[in-house]
Write a structure and sequence with these properties.
With about 150 residues, the protein is of the alpha+beta class. It has helices at about 30-45, 55, 90-105, 105-115, 115-130, 130-140; strands at about 1-5, 10-20, 25, 70-75, 85. It has a three-stranded antiparallel beta sheet with strand order 1-2-3, covered by helices on one side. The chain has a two-stranded antiparallel sheet with strand order 4-5. It starts with a strand and ends in an 8-residue tail after the last helix.
Length: about 150
């Protein structure tokens, strides 16, 4: 049994129901048909997640002016998940801060809060923790970030 709900002229949501012998049918959101449907419905309409990454990366090492020590306080537009203060002496805080910068920071944010020496130090961990779609762009822009062959 399928139920179709028309939300707009561009979007149709299909729910696949799995019979439940104990009661009424419940939506089966994990069925292969539902997963395929959701991917095809939403995947085609989404913009490229990596579009504009290059525009957020500083033009060179000399642009990075972030602090080398202390606590960095990010605005809520960047640290919206709760933690807004990052102690640069703490490896975990530093990884989170620089991860936010790689993923969400605009060029001015990166220039203000990323220190070139700390970025070089943290890069091996960041490189393992983030997709190559992002790290490769950073390595192309900032010579010396990529591991030597």
């Amino acid at each position: 049994m399928q139920a179709r709900l028309r939300l707009s002229t561009h979007l149709t949501v299909t729910t696949i129901y799995r019979p439940d012998p104990e009661g009424p049918a419940k939506p089966d959101v994990h069925s292969p048909a539902m997963l395929r449907h959701n991917f095809s419905m939403y995947g085609a309409d989404l913009p490229d997640r990596y579009e504009g990454v290059e525009a957020r990366i500083p033009r060179g090492w000399e642009d990075l002016c972030g602090p080398a020590a202390g606590v960095v306080h990010l605005p809520n537009r960047l640290a919206w998940s709760g933690v807004t203060d990052f102690n640069l002496a703490d490896a975990g805080d530093r990884f989170l801060l620089y991860g936010i910068m790689l993923d969400c920071g605009q060029r001015d944010d990166v220039k203000r809060w990323v220190n070139p020496d700390l970025l070089r130090q943290e890069w091996p961990r960041l490189r393992r923790g983030f997709t190559s779609q992002i790290t490769r762009r950073w390595e192309q822009r900032l010579p010396g970030l990529a591991p030597s062959a």
